[in-house]
């Protein structure tokens, strides 16, 4: 990627979703292969990925495959063979976590550092760049100032890099701009493995962060009851896009390899429009792929599943980043209950709603919800809805609806008159995105000429400057109506139909007003389009593989704990080559039997519950009463201790691995150095 280029990077659970991501404006798509991706149920066969690559490259969009789990020794060779297959399928880059891959004999495919590599500091980013990584996914917790600091640490851009093998490799910075948030620094959460044996670093997280917990202080007093205190709202950086660009971000990543087609279409289109507006105002910037999109819908992030939105730490620490009441989708307010009728299961169960917006239309199958008295979110799926005449007493501009729920009325706790109702699933929206909802076209200039007697040539030139021609020979005759000839020829040539091209201009440069049969024009157009597609595919060259700096640069530290996620001997060799002396095995090796940090996070429960000592400074009467004491999280039989590191402003969730997990996930011991070797 060149220094002035911006990349919209969309997720894909399947190749078909990836194709629609491209159609809705993605400059690149990331997708899981048949194994070793950090989403255990989002795997795809290589042949499906090859199909996606073929479609994406028509627009010069790129396909990145996630190979970002940590690997056992016995998985290194299967992973190496898979990389070869993906390279042969045309994949543009791999997103990796395990540094052991850098010690394997891989084809010259570009490598990107996964979010699992936990890049929070300029030193870590610079090291990974110097080790040969071409794109770095930064930690979600960074502020704009911290991002700018990392950008500066990577050094100046070499304009020739990526074109003629410039001397200075400069990594591009990537940042998550939308979707679900892991509360932990990515790669620094081991609760799932400790409690269930399912490792987040190996793509199988049990999502303990979304569970409800009792929060208890050291004296056993309840601080919070059944709150989802580790559950974050969803990420939305829509308002920060230009600030992120100015800080150095060049790839804007949408989370969601588990998400459905409608989510990917909608959120890709939303950020495509935001970036296009910036590109329109700032000609010094450019997209990394070709074409322009039109949509049959107006993108709206609120329409997809979300836990409400936050911009997290980009603009500094905020108090409202958590979805503590529920990890579910609360939807958008649409009105309130005016009547509840309980037919006791005889088909007469219904509620009546008064909507606040007269344009709100309910549909059979809509998903509604409300908060009960305990602030728990209760879902109500509609079976059938009816619009009712608004009574004279209704507020002006409201509409009355009768809703027959799918489930018995008795199952809806605290549903009563006056309760506010939200909609978290609109069937009208779902149906819109189930259909064709975008068209991506590459503008072309078309020119028809007769360079020699009896010869016609059609030339196509696209927005990237690629040119192709098609020619034919025939006996030309004069048109009966010379004034209508050029207009009809232009109209016929511009019919580009289901191709990826759109006629920006059609020039007819004939020496005489010749009559040209429609069949001849159609054949010329088809041949020219095929030729231009071929030229474009040939020009979509491989992304260059960065070369590591020689001799190997030292790692920022000379000792690594289990937090470095070293799970195989090739990864151990990598760090040793870069000057690390003490290397502990990954937590998944089950060598950490006692209490350790099972999660490290920038989120602070004390701060969110207004118990931070820094918050109390200057408040009369509270000095000395708020202490930096640990808190305990309790969910059933599971107990976790919260310890607060106030200097870096971080929270550690401390616990130990269960004995049954150790027994069920026993692996061959990894004999790394546990202490610093004695001097020779």
In short:
This protein is α/β, with parallel strands linked by helices. The chain folds into 4 domains: 5-180 and 233-290 and 297-310, Copper homeostasis (CutC) domain (TIM Barrel, Alpha-Beta Barrel); 182-232 and 558-680, no CATH class; 332-434, Elongation Factor Tu (Ef-tu), domain 3 (Beta Barrel); 442-539, no CATH class.
Description of the molecule:
The protein is an alpha/beta fold. The protein has 4 domains: 5-180 and 233-290 and 297-310, TIM Barrel (Alpha-Beta Barrel); 182-232 and 558-680, no CATH class; 332-434, Elongation Factor Tu (Ef-tu), domain 3 (Beta Barrel), CATH 2.40.30; 442-539, no CATH class. The chain is 22% helix and 26% strand. It is built from 15 helices and 32 strands. An 8-stranded parallel β-barrel has the order 1-2-3-4-5-6-7-11, surrounded by 6 helices. A 6-stranded antiparallel β-sheet has the order 9-8-30-31-32-29. Strands 15-16-19-18-17-20 form a 6-stranded antiparallel barrel. Strand 31 and strand 32 (650-655) form a beta hairpin. Helix 4 packs parallel to helix 5 (144-153) and helix 5 packs parallel to helix 7 (241-247). The chain is globular, with a radius of gyration of 29 Å. The two termini are 46 Å apart.
CATH superfamily grouping of the largest domain: Copper homeostasis (CutC) domain
> What shape does the CA trace take?
globular
**Major sheet size, sense and barrel closure:** 8 strands, parallel, barrel
The CATH architecture name of the largest domain reads: Alpha-Beta Barrel
CATH classification, class level of the largest domain: Alpha Beta
Work out the helicity level.
10-25%
Task: Give the radius of gyration.
Answer: 29 Å
| Head-to-tail CA distance between termini | 46 Å
Which fold name is given in CATH as the topology of the largest domain? TIM Barrel
How many domains?
A: 4
Number of helical stretches of at least 4 residues: 15
Measured by DSSP, the beta-strand proportion falls in: 25-35%
* Backbone structural class: alpha/beta
Compute the average pLDDT: 92
Strand order, biggest sheet?
Answer: 1-2-3-4-5-6-7-11
Number of strands: 32
Poorly predicted spans:
161-167
